[in-house]
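Entry under discussion copied across for reference:
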Amino acid sequence: MQDDDIAAIMRALGHPVRLNILRILSNQQRPECCCADVTESLTLAQSTVSQHIKVLLDAGLIERKPRGTRNCYIVQHERLAALGSAYSGMLAALGPATPKMESEPA
């Protein structure tokens, strides 16, 4: 995963409502749910929820599946797993360098 991808996903995850939407979608009994299902779980207007869903879609964190006149959403677990791996590697690389031991005098 490239730095641009990591940054885009982190921006999408940078709002608590979007994190909550991902939790709602992940915890559904059905494999997918629509915007109305998500809106019922939040105290926000449907238009606000739709805008947050669009950000998650643009970041590739969820996928839209048309079902008749409704759009249903599915979490892209593979993308989240790739982010986890990339993020771990990035954080490890940013850690402090291991100090070199000076050789003791003989």
